[in-house]
Amino acid sequence: AATIRERFILDGKIKALTSQGRLQAMVLSAMPFLVFGALLVVNPVLMRPMYTTPFGITMLFGIIGWEALGFFFLWKIVAIRT
């Protein structure tokens, strides 16, 4: 029973120590989409080629793919298994 209690305490400490990294992964992953949305609101003419031309659409899919890959790696770095 003591071992199980210690394991729960250790899990809580690990979650507390890695919470900053998890938040950082979420913020870094959301930032490009937030910037895109802000630029779309501020200057829609500037962002129009990103979703109207084939090259822009390809770039958007590439950005989404790289973002997903980066989020996956950040999450794997932060995830500590006990």
Describe this structure in words.
With 82 residues, the chain is mostly helical. The protein has helices spanning 2-42, 44-52, 54-78. The protein starts with a helix and ends with a helix. 1% of the residues are buried.
Mean pLDDT: 88
**Strand content of the residues, in percent?**
under 5%
The number of distinct β-strands equals 0
Helix content: over 70%
List the helices and strands and how they pair.
Elements: H1 2-42, H2 44-52, H3 54-78
Task: Supply the key terms.
elongated; mainly alpha; 82 residues; 0% strand
Q: What is shown here, in short?
A:
91% of the residues lie in helices and 0% in strands.
